[in-house]
Amino acid sequence: MINFKLGLVVVAAFACMQASNGEFLRRNGRDLMYGSNKIFLSGANIAWNSYGYDFGNGNYAGSGPTLEQWIRQIALAGGNVLRIWIHVEGESTPQFDNDGYVTAPDGQGTLISDLSRFLDVAQENDVFIIPVLWNGALIRNDRYKNLIWDDSKLQSYIDNALVPIVRALSNKPALAAWEIMNEPEGSILIEGNSNPCYDTSKMGQYGAGWTNTYIPMERMLRFVNKQIGAIKRTDNKVLVTVGSWSEHPQSDAFDDTFNFYKDSCLVGAGGEAQGTIDFYQIHTYSWEGNWNVHSPFRVTAGSYNLDKPVVIGEFAQVCAAGESVEALWNYAYNEGYSGAWSWQYNLDNGHCQDSQDAQNRGMQTIRSNSHNGLIRVPIN
């Protein structure tokens, strides 16, 4: 009887070892890889159920069942990734003191366990997760703004929130990448500068700076670089990205674009040698029925002349110059991109937002493809 029980323990231990093979999403040149396989990340943005209040401070008890159901629905449609927002504008998390310094991931101590549960459910359904820390498309909270302006306050966030979160979740295979910020370009100051990495005058011609928050690009790049550096010192295998509102800030290939997020610009602004992104992420929507001339749905991924993978991080059939959702997913898959993430899976019915049914059809279109990257990927 004792030997039988010992045998069960050994079998159980072996099963646990088998449950995690030590694989994590990684980059190889211009490709995303999982194990020995090239991967195409096909999926959706959630991006929230309750804007800024999905994780931490006990909020997951309300949002979690809905978020977990959406994971299952995306998986059933053949998707293998979702992008979700965490702090957003800093209204609920992280925890700030009265002087604007960060003291903890959240006030009630549930943010890490919330994210851990979310990642575990994602793994059970073979869905990768891209958590987005901050939103740059809208910045209304002064405590959040001051993390960008004040290095000491940013360091308090890194030390007391970011590093503990990253460390605690570093063993989660479903964690595909951290995203520092959604669309920083919305909050930048439009100005000329002798350093091209900080000269936003050209980008201003195409609509950047719409929030009137007036943050110089040097400060924004420093904010990004410092956090990436801290993440990679804590978890040197995890990927990191930034989501841009268009192709204009993420390539040097065309007259109307400039790559602000190349290694030299990020390191030059923040000084963190490890603080560089691992793949580019471009958002794209048609305007007045037309695509930008260099939109991802008008050029191949290789046209951007980038040395890292390129993902189409936001798009929608309802703002796609009349193209079908099936055509969009097929184009992204066949023209060299490493992923396509539709906007967005929640039920807000916002501008340029597809229905869940439309997004499911898009994912279903390519769910069995493998010639330009696997989509059906067991995460273990």
Quick recap:
It contains ten helices and 13 strands. The chain is of the alpha/beta class and 380 residues long.
Give the arrangement of secondary structure elements.
Blueprint: H1 2-19, E1 26-28, E2 31-34, E3 37-39, E4 41-47, H2 60-76, E5 81-88, E6 95-96, E7 102-104, H3 111-124, E8 128-135, H4 142-149, H5 151-169, E9 177-182, H6 201-204, H7 217-234, E10 239-244, H8 263-270, E11 280-283, E12 310-314, H9 325-334, E13 339-342, H10 356-366
Parallel strand pairs: 4-5, 4-13, 5-8, 8-9, 9-10, 10-11, 11-12
Antiparallel strand pairs: 1-2, 2-3, 6-7
Helix pairs in contact: 2-3, 3-5, 4-5, 5-7, 7-8, 9-10
Explained architecture:
The chain has 380 residues and is α/β, with parallel strands linked by helices. It has one domain: TIM Barrel. The strands form 3 sheets. The protein has an 8-stranded parallel beta sheet. The protein has a 3-stranded antiparallel beta sheet with strand order 1-2-3, with no helix packed on it. A two-stranded antiparallel ribbon has the order 6-7. Strand 4, helix 2 and strand 5 form a beta-alpha-beta unit. The longest helix has 19 residues. The two termini are 33 Å apart.
